[in-house]
Amino acid sequence: MGFIEKLRDRWQASDSLLCVGLDPDPAKFPDVFVDDDDALFGFCRDIVDATAEYACAFKPQIAYFAAHNDGEAALQRLIAHINGAYPDIPVILDAKRGDIGNTAEQYAVEAFDRFGADAVTLNPYMGRDSAAPFLQRNDRGCVFLCHTSNPGARDFQELLVDGAPLYQHVARTIASEWNGDGNCALVVGATFPEELKIIRGIVGDMPLLIPGIGAQGGDVEATVRNGKTANGTGLMINSSRGILYASGGAGYADAAADAAKTLRDEINRHR
Amino acid sequence: MGFIEKLRDRWQASDSLLCVGLDPDPAKFPDVFVDDDDALFGFCRDIVDATAEYACAFKPQIAYFAAHNDGEAALQRLIAHINGAYPDIPVILDAKRGDIGNTAEQYAVEAFDRFGADAVTLNPYMGRDSAAPFLQRNDRGCVFLCHTSNPGARDFQELLVDGAPLYQHVARTIASEWNGDGNCALVVGATFPEELKIIRGIVGDMPLLIPGIGAQGGDVEATVRNGKTANGTGLMINSSRGILYASGGAGYADAAADAAKTLRDEINRHR
């Protein structure tokens, strides 16, 4: 079963559009992890186990692992844990890769074979041939940056090309030319709800990964209203810090579960 | 000493504009490395030792390490070897990273602290704030994609914005707004020599990293003529496969040295 089908099944089975982002920052871990050499894995595993019930997807951010020696081994074990304990929940490796042919093939091996992710985030700036080695793995998902959630998204993504902003050209090109095997999705920031609405209009029912809820200020209601598909799905609304660090203390897992359930329910009220 | 200063000194001391790319593909290694668990490191170390005399920089491509379990440990040891044995030769980690604030900080730690690189390649699509955590490390270099060497470079990088292609806006923005600390450089493919000339006109004497010579078909003379600065430097002309796999056999190190010397000399004939 491919990534998109797995995601659609999970949306239905979990009644959730919540993507739990795994951005482990040891400086924010509860005291119980002080002096724990296996804290990266242990903390994330506890978050996964506490929130799986409420998640349509998990999204580990590779930078938070790659900043540490042996971080990749922790990431590998974490994804293996998710794939083993929650085989119905897709894993999106947030890596924003992008390079030419031979190198892109190596990155595809990294994401899909070494780490076992169902999908990977990609940067489209280098064009079609840089995406091809990922697109060809058509049982896996390719989640391309379109309009990101940060203020700097305006610097290049909103430049006007033939009267329309660049991000719309990116959305149109991916939807009409790169998605032949139906395994594409896009990253669209919740902090730009009007742009989200326009993108939904361009890409039909293509899944959208939505960062920017919570600390970055994105609004849940506007995100769901402007981003959902006709059947009330189509979105992976990500929350990382708001769930991972809901409690700084010993009750971190219960607090994460509560935060995930609360956000899942808030999202569902607007579907 | 910062990356740019280290690079300028090395251009002079080595009389070379050649960047040796380290893209280790075990399928192409000489037979001596069959069944060698340490082949990624061992092969690259031998190439480094054979070519250092002719190199203005080394550019390990992280994907070729990240495709393997424990590949990061090999990359770490390789860069430590270069920094120890050839402290005057800058190391550019080719990783094409790009993400928002907190995550970008983790990637900066990965490239500069964990791996000890002098510079890292970056993707500008997410804008200024995604670059800031790298730019702030002003003793290190930020090498941004501008016009890449692959055919897909045309898909988005050449879209017209106010009558000028996107890549020119990227070059202008980085040169005029992101380079306050003077630690920026750009990636420009040798396969687009006219665009290289235009970019040199926009960015003054900013260093340019040039992939695309050799297997991709870029021409050395046109690259040097269109890309050099007034003092005959300004370029890191990369060759990877043409040097690494100059001989498939036991004489790989000598063949790599010969290939590096030959290309260094060919570049110099056109300076």
Question: What's a quick, concise take on this entry?
Answer:
The structure is a homodimer of 271-residue chains. Chain A is α/β, with parallel strands linked by helices and 271 residues long.
Write the layout of secondary structure elements.
The structure is a homodimer of 271-residue chains.
Chain A: H1 3-14, E1 18-22, H2 39-51, E2 57-60, H3 63-66, H4 71-85, E3 92-97, H5 101-114, E4 119-122, H6 128-135, E5 141-147, H7 153-157, E6 160-161, E7 164-165, H8 166-178, E8 184-188, H9 193-203, E9 208-210, H10 220-227, E10 235-239, H11 241-244, H12 252-269
Parallel strand pairs in A: 1-2, 1-10, 3-4, 4-5, 5-8, 8-9, 9-10
Antiparallel strand pairs in A: 6-7
Question: What does this 3D model show about the protein?
Answer:
2 copies of one chain form a homodimer. Chain A is α/β, with parallel strands linked by helices and 271 residues long. Chain A has a single domain, classed as Aldolase class I (TIM Barrel, Alpha-Beta Barrel), CATH 3.20.20.70. Helix content of chain A is 46%, strand content 16%. Chain A is built from 12 helices and 10 strands. Chain A has helices at residues 3-14, 39-51, 63-66, 71-85, 101-114, 128-135, 153-157, 166-178, 193-203, 220-227, 241-244, 252-269, and strands at residues 18-22, 57-60, 92-97, 119-122, 141-147, 160-161, 164-165, 184-188, 208-210, 235-239. In chain A, strands 2-1-10-9-8-5-4-3 form an 8-stranded parallel sheet. In chain A, helix 9 (193-203) links the parallel strand 8 and strand 9 (208-210). The longest helix of chain A has 18 residues, at 252-269. Chain A is globular, with a radius of gyration of 18 Å. The mean pLDDT of chain A is 97. Chains A and B meet through helix 3, helix 4, helix 5, helix 6 and helix 7 of A and helix 3, helix 5, helix 6, helix 7 and strand 6 of B.
